[in-house]
Amino acid sequence: MLRACERTLAMAAHPLRLAIVGDVHDDWNAIQDAKALQFLEPDLVLFTGDFGEENVELVHYISNLDFPKAVILSNHDAWWSTYNLQLGPSEGERDGVQAQLDLLGKAHVGYSRLDFAKLKLSVVGGRPFSSGGRSLSAPRLCKRRYAVRNLKESAEKILQCNSSSKNPFLKKETHVNWELLPNVKLHNRGHY
Fold first, then answer.
1. For residue 41, what are the CA distances in angstroms to 38, 44, 105?
2. Measured at the alpha carbon of residue 11, what is the angle toward residues 9 and 16, in degrees to the nearest 5?
3. What's the per-residue H, E or C state across 31-58?
4. How far apart are CA 37 and CA 42, in angstroms?
5. Phi/psi at 70 (nearest 5 deg)?
6. pLDDT tens for residues 40-80?
7. Between the CA of residue 72 and those of 20, 123, 176, what are the distances in Å?
């Protein structure tokens, strides 16, 4: 495995430059943070969510950044919708989650894959609106939007992203031994 990776890296025309941005929590300076990204000159920016409590304005700004990007919304990006899901938005009130998803379009990789052909790279998104841990953070939201009711269905949905990939690294069959899952220790490192 190590030799294959070394050969693959040696054949690359230039190293891949990723910028990973997460847990912004409303603390984004439009001018300075955009300049920081320009300075880094990333080939791809991965946004891992928690922009703020359904901060549609910030997500609108992020969606307009002129960089190749992939985004996964996290638990704070569905903060109000998670608690008000049974009632739905009040008359005249916007659905913050849907507004963010509409702004991001295909850049949102929740339970999906986004191929970057020029980079020869595919990004497979995981469980959207997650805060980590052994259960779905927003079970009603995940059930309504993605027909996912539990972690097993969540994992299966993520693995389905493999099947149609043109990326040879994702073509490999992936199997999960579900009997081992109860023995896996998942740690939440302060992501709430």
1. 5, 9, 23
2. 50
3. HHHHHHHHHHCCCEEEECCCCCCCCHHH
4. 7
5. -135, 140
6. 999 999 999 999 989 999 999 999 999 999 999 999 898 88
7. 11, 10, 23
